[in-house]
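YM 10:42: CUB domain-containing protein sequence, as discussed on the call
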Amino acid sequence: MNKKVQLILNSLLTVIAAVGFSGAQECEKNNVKDCNKVYNSIDQSDGIITSPCYPSNYPNITVCKYEFIGRTNERIQLNFIDFSLTGNHTECYYSDTVEIFMFIKDKYQPVQLLCGLHQLPGPILSYNNKMQIEFRGIYGGKLENARGFKLEFAFIRHYGIKSGKQVDNKCDFIYNSNETKAGVINSPNFPGSYPINMECNYYFHGNDNETVEILFSYFDVEGVFPCYGDDVSSDSVEFSNYPSRDRKLKFYCGKVDHAFTLKSENKYFRVTFRSNDRLDGTGFRASYKFISPIKNETRTQYIEINIENSSRKLNISILLIFIGNFVFFKFC
Ligand SMILES: [Ca+2]
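YM 10:58: structure's back
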């Protein structure tokens, strides 16, 4: 390679490097300058938010606030798609963070601090129609090659419960045997934490003679037995064969490590989840099915009877025929 070609090549590499460098600088400059945003459900019902320069390393000393304002009855749900922040991964000390603020008693109050390089946070559901999150990228992504975050947000009315028929935008859901014989139910925002001050009803309506069976495969509701009192010291799940309280059935709370089943006595069943104004859990997930009575099933069984006295021995075979609740017999 002669000197002239070498010179041209070097100049070209310098230009390419300069363009790349200024591109990265440009990203940092633009994003940092303009990273506070307000999302209003009147303008958009959902969207995606990323940290500055995502998926490249975010710049250091970056603070972005995102505020969400929904209509009455709307809540904001966040689902993280990617989460990778520089810092200590326990307790969030010396870490870059995302902090969640809920609108409580007319002001934003911090409720949750997220950090870490590998752990994807669960979904987050606001307590009402307002929420704010704050990204603090103080150390910057370059230290640990952290990408920042990417999340989906949506203004919703279904509380993260996507089965059943919702009643009047309330946290009330109806499960009709005429529409579906089996399905799943879950607490609000499952598998993320449920919000405070919730009451959700799950009403099951079977056809005549049907009952409903509910199998809980996951249960983690904050509280201690008896789970319900006048001071509402616990969150709870109530079961009832009636619209009113069913004193035969206890309230459930705490963490249950094994699956368990509840069965209704008749075609109607109600499950009510309640959370109080402090602490939370991840709630529950269950599957349900409506069960029809056993039809006139037929089965048979042979029995043998030996009768013996001093004069003779008698061996009798009898065929029993079971049809539904009736039994017939026949000597053989
Ligand atoms: Ca609680």
